[in-house]
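#struct-help
A.M.: can someone run this one for me? Single chain, 147 residues.
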Amino acid sequence: MGTLAKNRKAHFNYELLENFEGGLVLSGAEVKAAKRGHINMKGAFLSIVNNELWLKNMHIGKFAPAGKQEDYVPTQNRKVLVKRREIKSLTGKADQKGLTIVPISVYTKGDLVKLGFALAKGKKNHEKRDAIKKRDISRHIQEEMKR
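D.P.: on it. Structure tokens below:
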């Protein structure tokens, strides 16, 4: 099935330093909703609490055929399954000044739902403007070459 959702702003707002992969703990209805594309990663982030990695603020909509889900919270915290040594490594690196853990994509691998995330450093506004300028110049060059 492939990619279920991408965090498009992550590549623009952050410089991605190191990529990781982890399993996402979801209920059955959440998995079905995710596979139907009812995921929004805008504003999602990862944090380490009690030596566990948690995905916060990712929206997974209700799966209507599952019946009434009165107490369902779409943006609830979700646990990310990674090895202990990766959590220790991330803890040490994330404590450094200006580094954060950013979710990149949600995808399937076999029957499992996985989360791709990265250790990232926030870009300054001038770096974002430079990226826009380079993208516009390359787009203009491609248009000229087609003519």
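A.M.: thanks! The chain has one domain: 3-146.
D.P.: also worth noting: Residues 13 and 123 are 6 Å apart (CA to CA).
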